[in-house]
Each structure stands twice: as C-alpha cells, then as structure tokens.
Amino acid sequence: MTFATADISDALHPKLQYVEPIFKSYGAQEKFFGPIKTIKCYEDNSLVKEALFSTGAGQVLVVDAGGSKRCAMLGDMLATAALKNGWAGIIMFGLIRDSAIINTLDIGVRALGTLPLKSEKKGVGEKNIDVRFAGVNFIPGYFVYADSDGIIVVEKEYAD
Q1: How many angstroms separate the CA atoms of 35 and 70, rounded?
Q2: Do 94 and 66 contact (CB within 8 A), yes or no?
Q3: Structural domain tally of the chain?
Q4: What CATH number did the domain enclosing 124 receive?
Q5: Were 92 and a residue from 111, 113, 131, 150 both cysteine, which residue would form a disulfide, CB within 3.0 to 4.6 Å?
Q6: What angle do CA 156, 45, 76 make, to 5 degrees?
C-alpha cells in the first residue's frame, strides 16, 4: 500500500474527519484502508463474528462496542476468519484478546486495548448503521484509512 494519511490530509483537508488518537495498533498490517461496514453492539460480539465469517471484499469492519473495557470483542479466531474472508482491517471501539497471535496475522486492527475475558453471545446489536465515536461519524460506504500517523474517514466521493 502506498498511501499515507498525512498526504491524504494535505490533499483533502477539510473534507475528511480525523479519528481521535485513542487506538492502539495490532496485527502485522500497520496500514489498511477500505469502505466502512459498521456494527454497533455492547459486550456481545455475535454480530462481529457473523460479519467476519462472511466475505469482507476489502472492507474495514468498524465496531462501536461502546468503548467497554469489561470484555474483549475480538480474538484470534475472529481475526483469522477476517483475514481468510478478505477483510482489510478492523477498528474496534472496545477491547481485543489474543493480541500475541493477532500481531502475527497479516491484517490491521485498531482497538482501545486488551483483556483476556471474552464477550457474551446473545445476538444483540445493529449492523450497517451510522455510528459515532472518537469524534468521527463512521458511515457505511465511506472510506477509512489507517496508518502509523492515525485514522481518517473520507466521504466516498473523495476516496479515489
């Protein structure tokens, strides 16, 4: 990948959104980008699993887990499924687990941190809706770019 968020910022500011720098980087892929697909759930990763076990087609799964620090919403099995199913990356407004294994996988993950406790599985949540966290509106179909300088969101019409 040849993009840099700083270069995109120079070219498109103020037509983009800057995600607050609250995320840690996991996975072997430091930079990733793609169209946004969203999930909103809280301490239940059933919809995350459903999404990552389906075809990703280069999309970035953006999960509004409410910023919960009480359980992990992504582990090595889901991250492996994401890689196998063609997801470009995952942005988790929550926690992950199995970070040592995830760090060996050729996928990009951003999360608030880690915790070994897994989430519940009740099938509760929403998908493909606009979500807001870290100062940004994540809208399905918009593009997200992540690299070592940060994460930005670009409207579909400017993402070329």
Answers
A1: 29
A2: yes
A3: 1
A4: 3.50.30.40
A5: 111
A6: 90
24 confidence band (pLDDT: 50, 70, 90): very high
Q: Is residue 127 part of a domain?
A: yes
Domain membership of residue 2 (yes or no) is: no
Type of residue numbered 148: S
Average pLDDT of the chain is 97
Looking at residue 156, what is its pLDDT?
Answer: 82
Whether residue 1 is contained in a domain is answered as no
User: Against a cut of 0.90, is the pTM above it?
Assistant: yes
**104 lies in a domain?**
yes
Cα atoms in the Cβ-side hemisphere of radius 13 Å centred on 150: 16
Label residues 50-76 b or e (16+ Cβ within 10 Å = b): ebbeeebeebbbbbbbeebeebbbbbb
